[in-house]
Amino acid sequence: MKRYCLICCLLLGIVAAQVWAEERSSAAPGPKDRQQQYESVEERRIMGNIRDSVSFTSQEKENVEDRKKELKRMEVEVDKKIDQLTRLRDQIAKLLEQKSEEENKRVTELARVYEKMTAEKAAAVMGSIDQELAIAILAKMKTKSAAKILGSMEREKAARLTTGFSTLDAP
Question: Where is coiled-coil annotated (predicted)?
């Protein structure tokens, strides 16, 4: 009977040791128990601040990435606008060049017309037109014809045209 009690006590001790070991292993802090391991108010406050900072940082990172994408999109749009404006500028420059060439042709034609007129009639008309146009016409005329026309004009008007003609940038 003593043996029987001894065996029962041994078995009971072994079972108790196993139960104690299982309880101890389940009492180790797992992922869900980590929050509970911070017992002081200060530790919990610091951990809360860290979690908030991590959350804020990830939100800021997302905002920065969104802004980068928006800037890339805007950069592409600006590049397109620059290309479009460059093409328009080139078209305008070409049109201005064509206009200038056409004006030169017309001034040359006017010079031929004035050369065919009598000096007195040409002087009367040139005295009443814009000074720059008159200078441009005189510049396109033969020297002899221009001299006759200037000689037939009023002295003041002829002097102004001569002064303007001498400072003329050749068209």
Answer: 54-113
Q: Is CATH 3.30.70 the classification given to domain 56-170?
A: no
Both tokens of residue 59? 């939100």
Distance CA 25, CA 70 (A): 53
Token pair of 6 as six digits: 């001894």
Q: What are phi and psi of 39, to 5 degrees?
A: -90, -30
* pLDDT tier for residue 134 given thresholds of 50, 70 and 90: very high
CA distance 17 to 27: 15
pTM, two decimals, is: 0.51
Residue 141 and residue 113: Cα distance in Å, rounded?
Answer: 10
Q: Say if CB 127 and CB 157 are below 8 A apart.
A: yes
Cα 119 to Cα 115: distance, rounded to the nearest angstrom:
8
Cα separation of the two ends of the chain: 138
- Tokens 């009598």 sit at which residue? 118
Let me know: does 10 contact 17? Beta carbons within 8 Å. no
For residue 130, pLDDT over 70 is answered with yes
> What does the radius of gyration of the chain's CA atoms come to, in whole angstroms?
51
Distance from C-alpha of 55 to C-alpha of 137, rounded to nearest angstrom: 79
